[in-house]
Structures are given as structure tokens and as C-alpha cells.
Specification:
EC number: 2.7.4.8
CATH superfamily of the largest domain: P-loop containing nucleotide triphosphate hydrolases
Structural class: alpha/beta
Bound molecules: guanosine-5'-diphosphate, adenosine-5'-diphosphate
Largest sheet: 5 strands, parallel
Strand content: 15-25%
Strand order of the largest sheet: 2-7-1-8-9
Family: Belongs to the guanylate kinase family.
CATH topology of the largest domain: Rossmann fold
Number of strands: 9
CATH class of the largest domain: Alpha Beta
Keywords: ATP-binding, Cytoplasm, Kinase, Nucleotide-binding, Transferase
Protein name: Guanylate kinase
Catalytic activity: GMP + ATP = GDP + ADP
Number of helices: 8
Length: 198
Amino acid sequence: MGNGLLIVISGPSGVGKGTVCRYLLDKNKEISLSVSSTTRAPRIGEIDKVSYFFTDKEQFEKMINNEEFLEYAYVHGNYYGTPKKNVLEKVEKGQDVLLEIDIQGALQVKEFYPDGVFIFILPPTMEELKKRIVNRGTETEAAIEERFKTAYKEIEYVFKYDYAILNDEIELAVKRIESIIEAEKCKVKRQIEIIKDI
Ligand SMILES: Nc1nc2c(ncn2[C@@H]2O[C@H](COP(=O)(O)OP(=O)(O)O)[C@@H](O)[C@H]2O)c(=O)[nH]1
Ligand SMILES: Nc1ncnc2c1ncn2[C@@H]1O[C@H](COP(=O)(O)OP(=O)(O)O)[C@@H](O)[C@H]1O
């Protein structure tokens, strides 16, 4: 059994990463989601240990010092990190693991795991992106402005990724990601053992 896929998804705030990932995971039960730790306060509807491991700055910094993170970053005034535990073990056991993380984190993952599949989600337009952040209704006006301003800088990093997915329609975006996963699994380098056995 070869390795599973380490799928990394990034994109600006409000582009629909969370929504697209939820649809993808609902339809593909074999993909496991890496739950991140964060010092951000939970939004209404978010569940501790399911949406994120919600923690405080002191605890997070302790985890950094104990090298408990695969990667971490400071985003929009808060820490976010992928707990090391499980992710690589799962991939090595052949399981596909999904990381929904920011660009700084994705670049760290790419450094030591270049075999990952790096996907960037794009909005149809910047106007639509703004509309989505505003309509989600989870952020203060200042937080919306901060996220929107950062979005312009973030989008420039699309060129560091393997794939760009336009999130115009959720179902279409999910289908595009499923096609990428399918194609990645067909790569010769991922089928060496199967090919040898023919
Ligand atoms: N580096 C890193 N970024 C993360 C992690 N978890 C979430 N993020 C990113 O942090 C950013 C802010 O996430 P969040 O507060 O949920 O806000 P949203 O993007 O507006 O939904 C997003 O770009 C997430 O992809 C993580 O474990 N590591
Ligand atoms: N393809 C889409 N078309 C219209 N609205 C969308 C689409 N994808 C997501 N949304 C909406 O945009 C808002 C932001 O989505 P969310 O998944 O929270 O983004 P992110 O995780 O990237 O910050 C939510 O209100 C969501 O319902």
C-alpha cells in the first residue's frame, strides 16, 4: 500500500474554503480532515475539537516549544497550527488527509513534504469575495477590512500552488477538487507497486 495523499487547501478569507471542504468531506468519507489548533475565539456554531482545537496563547506557545506542530502561522492576529500527531502517520498508512491552512503554513508543509497536493481556491471576483465575507456575518467591520486587504496579497501566492480552483459554484468547485484527487492517484509515481505486480 502506497502513501495516501496529503491535500493542502488555501485561499483568502471568505472564498469558501470551509464550505467546499465540508462538501468534499461529506461526499468522500475516506478523506480525513486535520483539525487545527487556534487562539481565535470560536464563532457561533463552531464546536471545540471538531472545527478547531480552541486554545489560548500561552498553551499554543507551549505547544510550539514542544515541537507539537507540523506547521503553524500567525494569521489575522491569531495563531493557527496543524498538530503533528496523526497527520503523517495517517498518510503513511495510505489514508488521504486534508489540511485547510493559510499560505505561510502551506509553504512550510511544501518544504518538507513536496509530495503533497497544493490547491488554491479563487473567488470569481474580488467584489464577490467581499460580499461573501460580509454575508457570512461572523466578523466585525475591522476584521472584514483586515481580511479583505490581506486577500490581495494572498492571491499573489497562487503561483506557488499546483492547482487553482475557481469557487463560482460550490458543487462545481468540489467536482474539480475530486478530479484533481483522482488524477493525482493515477500518477505513475503513486502506482509503482501496482505496476510492478502486473
Ligand atoms: N497555517 C495555518 N493556517 C490555518 C490553520 N487552520 C486554519 N488556518 C488558516 O487561517 C486562516 C483564518 O481562518 P479562520 O479564522 O477560520 O477564518 P476564515 O478564513 O475567515 O474562515 C485561514 O486562511 C485558514 O485557512 C492551521 O492549522 N495552520
Ligand atoms: N460558491 C459559492 N457561492 C456563493 N457563496 C458561497 C460559495 N462558497 C461559499 N459561499 C459562502 O461564502 C461565505 C464564506 O464561506 P466560508 O466557507 O466560510 O469561507 P472561508 O472558509 O474560505 O473563509 C459563507 O457564507 C458561504 O456560505
